[in-house]
C-alpha cells in the first residue's frame, strides 16, 4: 500500500508483513508511526483474507523507543488531553494473531510494541529493555504491566529501575520471547510461523488467542469457564467438522474460516 510514510505493508497469501521504516531514527515511535501502524493493522484485521500479521523493524532496530525528540517539549496537559499513545492499546485488541519479529533494539516503546503482539520471536541480536527511567520518565505503553506479567517482578523491577537491557538469551530464559532465531533467518521464520497460523481456521485462531489473553485478565476458575464456553462454541464452526474429518480421513484439512 502507498498511503504510509513510516511503514511498509506487504501481503503474502494470508499473511501480512508490516515493517517499521524510519531507519534514520532507529524506528522511533512517533505519533505518525503509531497512527499508521494502528490504521494499517486495523484494516488488515477487518480483511477476511488475512489470517496473521507480522510486525518487524530493521536488522539494527525493531524500535528504539517512543520518539524522545517529539516527547521532550510536551506538557502534562498536552499528554493528558491528547491521551498520548492511547491508540497503541488498539493493537492489543486486534482479533487477528500478530507476530513480532525482533532484531536489534527493542527498547522502551519498542519493547512495549513487541509485547503487544501475540507471538514474540527474537533474533540472536535482539536487545530488550525499558530504559525510560534514564530519561526521567517511566514506561507508558503498558511496559510496567506486560513486562512484569511476562518475566515476573524480579527482572521487571530491575529493568524498569536501572534501565539495563536484556539480550536475547536472557529474554528467552525469562519467558519474554518464545524462541531465538539466527538474525539472518528471523524474517523467514516469522513469516513461516505466520503462514502456519494463517492456515488454521481464522475464527478458531481468534478464539484461541482470546482464551490465552483472558489468562492475563481474570482468575483461574473464570478463565477456565471462559475457555469452556469457547470450546463449546468451536463446535458451531464448519472448520471443526473439517479438521476432525481430515484427521480421520488421514488427509490435510482445508479450512474455510467458517
Ligand atoms: N527517539 C528519537 N530518536 C531516536 C531514538 C528515540 N527513542 N532512538 C534513537 N534515535 C535517533 C538518534 O537520536 C539518532 O538520530 P540523529 O542521528 O539525528 O542524532 C539516530 O536515531 C541513531 O541513534 P544513535 O546515534 O543513538 O544510535 P546508536 O547506535 O549510537 O545507539 C541506541 C542506539 C542505544 C538504541 C540509542 O539510540 C538509544 O539509547 N536510544 C534511546 C533508547 C531509549 O531510551 N528508548 C526509550 C525511549 S522512551 C519511551 O519509549 C517511553 C515510552 C512511553 C512513553 C509514554 C508516553 C505516554
Automatic annotation (TrEMBL):
Pfam families the UniProt entry points to: ECH_1 (PF00378)
UniProt xrefs under PROSITE patterns: ENOYL_COA_HYDRATASE
Entry superkingdom: Bacteria
What is the catalytic activity of this protein?
A: a 4-saturated-(3S)-3-hydroxyacyl-CoA = a (3E)-enoyl-CoA + H2O; a (3S)-3-hydroxyacyl-CoA = a (2E)-enoyl-CoA + H2O
Top EC category = lyase
The entry lists its GO molecular-function terms as: enoyl-CoA hydratase activity
Record-linked CDD domains: crotonase-like (cd06558)
Q: Which keywords does this chain's UniProt record carry?
A: Lyase
Query: EC?
Result: 4.2.1.17
- Record's InterPro entries? ClpP/crotonase-like_dom_sf, Enoyl-CoA_hyd/isom_CS, Enoyl-CoA_hydra/iso, Enoyl-CoA_hydra_C
Similarity comment text for this entry: Belongs to the enoyl-CoA hydratase/isomerase family.
What protein name does the entry list?
Enoyl-CoA hydratase
The protein's organism comes out as: Streptomyces goshikiensis
